[in-house]
Amino acid sequence: MSEPLVTIGITCFNAADTIARAVGSALAQNWPNFEVVIVDDFSTDDSTDLIRAAIGGEPRAKLIRHSCNLGPAAARNTILSEGRGEFIAFFDDDDESLSDRIPNQVRTLAAYEQRTGVQLIACYASGIRRYPNGYTLALPAIGSQGEQVPNGPGVADYLLIYRRRADWFYGSGTPACALLARHSTFAAVGGFDAQLRRVEDADFAIRLALMGGHFVGTRQTLFIQYSTSGLDKSVERNLEAHQRLVCKQRTYLESIDRLDYAKRWPRLRYWHFNRRYQRFFLELAALLVRHPFAVTRHLLTTGPRRFLHERRMRRRHHTCG
Question: What SS3 state is found at 16?
Answer without folding.
Answer: coil
